[in-house]
Write a structure and sequence with these properties.
- The chain is of the alpha/beta class.
- The chain has three domains: about 280 residues, 3-Layer(aba) Sandwich (Rossmann fold); about 120 residues, Domain 2, N(10)-formyltetrahydrofolate synthetase (2-Layer Sandwich); about 80 residues, Formyltetrahydrofolate synthetase, domain 3 (Roll).
- The strands form six sheets. Strands 1, 2, 3, 4, 5, 6, 14, 15, 16, 17, 18 and 19 form a twelve-stranded mixed β-sheet that branches. A four-stranded mixed β-sheet has the order 20-22-23-21.
- Helix 3 crosses helix 17, helix 13 packs across helix 14 and helix 14 runs parallel beside helix 15.
- The longest helix is centred in the N-terminal third of the chain and has 21 residues.
């Protein structure tokens, strides 16, 4: 079979105006970036309440691969094959994983969004705009200190970092301001990856330009020498930072290989941020289609939990149903099977690893919405393994399941899942948040730890406790929490696979994101600037004189 990029390059793409016409978006609302991608005017927020929202999540990611994005895209094409008006709302890929080990985020096989090369590389420039806006704010902070420091900012307590959309471990800790009096005030600083910037979260949670500007004005950039908070509004530069994002705030429209419309906008990681595409993209989809399919980053313990607890209150729409993607290979790995033997049939180890799926399903069911399991079938999966997993899901979890072959078959491999979702979406179910935002930060962390992760204790370091004291003085405790945690385990230890229980979550730091409207809880050894692997994907990439790209995936 052709590689992903070869399939993408041989696709028959529609002009983006024709894709937009499928969901009744007029040409005058499009700002075209060539023939196959466009910015769309900010939606009017008048989406029909009867339109359905489907959230796709998964078990914990493993080296065996889960194919959550592939299933999501194939599901959209499955709805299209059933004659339904559907639209996808997905995140933009970050160059860090594209050049690193994970690769792009445009699906795979016959289930892709296109143009794949553009989306995985610079796309419409949103991430570059965010990087420049973030670093402009950093420069303005240091410039204020250099020229008299009217606000009395303590350089040792600046929490606003510079960013770069590349995995560059060398920049995690740096010293700036060297070179004498004319080069600034020396201080310790550091870089995050762009997707960890608060501006990325703000872009994805804003509803219009005014809301974007208001959120930017509330960003906490640091503290004064007498420990008083300093916000962007104190610097009076919120207008300038908003101006740099005037185009980036508009959702991007592309298509799948089968011409299903797809809004792709924003890209916060779910292990260090909230892991969901922009509210504006989801609203645009809800405005335009009867079914909107969106995806949350990593497993349900990260992206889906944050979608439920951070995004839905801003969106004013809860998912009508939740899809949990699982693979037999990943379940066998969770069951203790060697990763080099995953192509070998082993029902016993699969059923041992299925406890990971159990916890993801049970965690999502606590929100009150129906859950269905999508079994993403790989060529090595045997009929015996598939039947055993289907029986377990039916008899032990008491939820529906569907076998998906979208990678090989495109939308035709997801029509069964689409059909079952149509029925589930028509059921009425009450939504139940798993914590009250007015509870203490400690109680909110414990609620997620117990109800979603399966742990039983939370240990908060002294450094984090000092931040909690500052939050209390600012009256900023009544915000949702965004737990930064390894994606590989329910715990904060990436080596604890499957479904560990009765463990402790270790909180190392707490970072107020007052503009975004949530509190980041740093756990374990999580990093906000990843590093490149021994053999980064960049080593396999090339382009010839005709512009043909190879090695991108």
């Amino acid at each position: 079979m052709k590689t992903d990029i070869e399939i993408s390059q041989s696709a028959d793409l529609w002009n983006i105006k024709d894709v937009a016409q499928k969901i009744n978006i007029p040409e005058n609302q499009l700002e075209q970036y060539g023939n196959y991608k466009a910015k769309v005017s900010i939606p009017t927020n008048n989406q029909k309440t009867k339109r359905k929202l489907i959230l796709v999540t998964s078990i914990n990611p493993t080296s065996a691969g889960e194919g959550k994005t592939t299933v999501t895209i194939g599901l959209g094409d499955g709805f299209t094959k059933l004659g339904e008006r559907v639209c996808l709302a997905l995140r933009e890929p970050s160059l860090g994983p594209v050049m690193g080990i994970k690769g792009g985020a445009t699906g795979g096989g016959k289930s892709q969004v296109v143009p794949m090369e553009d989306i995985n590389l610079h796309f419409t420039g949103d991430f570059h705009a965010l990087t420049e806006a973030n670093n402009t704010l950093a420069a303005l902070i240091d410039n204020h200190i250099q020229h008299g420091n009217e606000l009395n900012i303590d350089p040792r307590q600046i929490i606003w970092k510079r960013v770069l959309d590349v995995n560059d471990r060398e920049l995690r800790q740096v010293v700036v301001g060297l070179g004498g009096k004319t080069s600034g005030v020396p201080r310790q600083d550091g870089f995050d990856i762009t997707v960890a910037s608060e501006l990325m979260a703000i872009l994805c949670l804003s509803t219009d330009i005014d809301d974007l500007k208001y959120r930017i004005s509330n960003i906490l950039i640091g503290y004064t020498y007498d420990n008083q908070p300093v916000r962007v509004a104190d610097l009076k530069v919120q207008g300038a930072i908003t101006l740099l994002l005037k185009d980036a705030i508009k959702p991007n429209l592309v298509q799948t290989l089968e011409h299903t419309p797809a809004f792709i906008h924003g890209g916060p990681f779910a292990n260090i941020a909230h892991g969901c595409n922009s509210i504006l993209a989801t609203k645009a989809s809800l405005d335009s289609a009867d079914y909107t399919i969106t995806e949350a980053g990593f497993g349900s313990d990260l992206g889906a939990e944050k979608f439920m607890d951070i995004v839905t209150p801003k969106l004013n729409k809860q998912p009508d149903t939740v899809v949990v993607v699982a693979t037999i290979r990943a379940l066998k790995l969770n069951g203790g099977m060697d990763k080099n033997e995953l192509d070998t049939e082993n029902v016993d180890l699969m059923l041992k690893g299925v406890k990971n799926l159990d916890r993801h399903v049970l965690g999502m069911q606590q929100y009150g919405k129906p859950v269905i399991v999508a079994i993403n079938r790989f060529p090595s999966d045997t009929d015996k393994e598939v039947q055993a997993l289907q029986n377990y899901i039916k008899d032990q979890l008491h939820v529906s399941s569907s076998l998906v072959t979208a990678w090989a078959d495109g939308g035709a491999g997801a029509t069964d899942l689409a059909s079952k979702l149509i029925d589930l979406c028509n059921e009425e179910h009450q939504f139940y948040p798993i914590y009250d935002v007015n509870e203490s930060v400690e109680d909110k962390i414990l609620a997620v730890t117990k109800k979603i992760y399966g742990g039983n204790k939370v240990d908060i370091d002294k450094k984090a406790m000092k931040v909690l004291d500052k939050l209390a003085k600012m009256d900023a405790n009544n915000l949702p929490i965004c737990i930064a945690k390894t994606q590989y385990s329910f715990s904060d230890d990436p080596q604890k696979l499957n479904a560990p229980s009765d463990f402790t979550i270790h909180v190392k730091d707490i970072v107020p994101k007052l503009g975004a409207g949530f509190i980041v809880v740093m756990t374990g050894n999580i990093l906000t600037m990843p590093g490149l692997p021994t053999h980064p994907a960049a080593l396999n990439m090339d382009i010839d004189n005709n512009g043909k790209i190879t090695g991108l995936f």
